[in-house]
Structures are given as C-alpha cells and as structure tokens.
Amino acid sequence: MPRTFSFRAQNIQDTERLGTALAAAFPDGVIALDGPLGAGKTRLVQAIAAECGVNRADVVSPTFVLMHEYHGDRPIYHVDCYRLRDDDEYNQLGVDEHYGPPNLVLIEWAGRMERCMPNDRLDVAISPMGSEVREFNFVAHGENATARLAELRRMLT
C-alpha cells in the first residue's frame, strides 16, 4: 500500500475540501504539519476543525500558548512547535498524553520535534506555489496512517 500522496490545491476552496477529507479519513491520530511561514498550516487546521464542529473563528495559531484544545464532535489538540527549543520542552507540554483515540492531534512545525513524533502519524508538507495554490505532500508512518492515507486518496481523486 503506498505511503505517499500529493494533492495540489488550486484555491482556498480546494484547501477546504482537503480539510473536510482529512477530518473524515482521520477521525483520530496525529497529523504533523510542516511548511514555511504563511504556507497555510493554520488554515488547514481551521478546515479540519470546522468539519469536526468547531467554530472556525475559535481556531487560531497556538504559537504563543503552544497548545489549544477544541471541543467539537471529537477532542482536537492543536500544537505549535515553532517556539520550542528542544525535545524536553515538547515533552513537558504532555502532547503525547493525547496521542490515540478519540483524540485528533494537529501539530504545526512538527519537523522541529521529529524525534518526539509518534511512529504512527501522517506527515503533511505544505509548499506555497502561488497566492492561493498549495502543494500538499503526505507521508504515512505506521499501519493506521497508511490505511487512512489510502482513504484520503480515494476521497480526493
């Protein structure tokens, strides 16, 4: 089963469609997001959270508070690793306590804490290709993430 997939969003509506599909394909688990400033990490989290019944206006980047918890149809933890200095700071947040059902954990700047990421997760690298165009490259790690990535691919192609 393929562990990679790419999706090109031509506009914000495509990014919203991707968020809807991610929310359906990943009812729980860890989605690790990476990309430069302004790539659309938080926008994708907003789309996922909105599909899960969270008010989009409540979903903001946790850069300064490091972790937000949202209550929709499932618990969502939104983490930002941008300001973290090392693995110890990440571990002190207790994010790993939220890995696993029924929680969905969305981690921005996850590559900065690569060693702290769970073995079963979906990595999403976001590359801006224009003002609204984004390339999303997915890599599944682990059996659950791989199966869910296959479901995501079916939804989007």
Write the layout of secondary structure elements.
Elements: E1 4-9, H1 12-25, E2 29-34, H2 41-51, E3 67-71, E4 75-80, H3 87-93, E5 104-108, E6 121-128, E7 134-141, H4 143-156
Parallel strand pairs: 2-5, 2-6, 4-5
Antiparallel strand pairs: 1-7, 3-4, 6-7
Report on the architecture of this protein.
This protein is about 30% helix and about 30% strand. The protein is of the alpha/beta class and about 160 residues long. The protein has one domain: Rossmann fold. It has a 7-stranded mixed β-sheet with strand order 1-7-6-2-5-4-3. A hairpin with a 3-residue loop joins strand 3 and strand 4. The radius of gyration is 14 Å and the shape is globular.
Q: Can you give me a brief rundown of this structure?
A:
The chain is α/β, with parallel strands linked by helices. The protein is built from 4 helices and 7 strands; from the N terminus they run βαβαββαβββα.
Radius of gyration: 14 Å
User: Low-confidence stretches at least 5 residues in length (pLDDT < 50)?
Assistant: none
Helix content: 25-40%
Nearest-integer average pLDDT: 94
Following the backbone from N to C, one meets helices and strands in this order, namely EHEHEEHEEEH
Biggest sheet overview: 7 strands, mixed
Q: Which CATH class applies here?
A: Alpha Beta
Terminus-to-terminus distance: 16 Å
Q: Strand arrangement, largest sheet?
A: 1-7-6-2-5-4-3
Number of strands: 7
Q: What general outline do the C-alpha atoms trace?
A: globular
Tally of separate domains? 1
Alpha-beta classification: alpha/beta
**CATH third-tier fold name:** Rossmann fold
CATH superfamily: P-loop containing nucleotide triphosphate hydrolases
Number of helices: 4
State which percent range the strand residues make up.
Answer: 25-35%
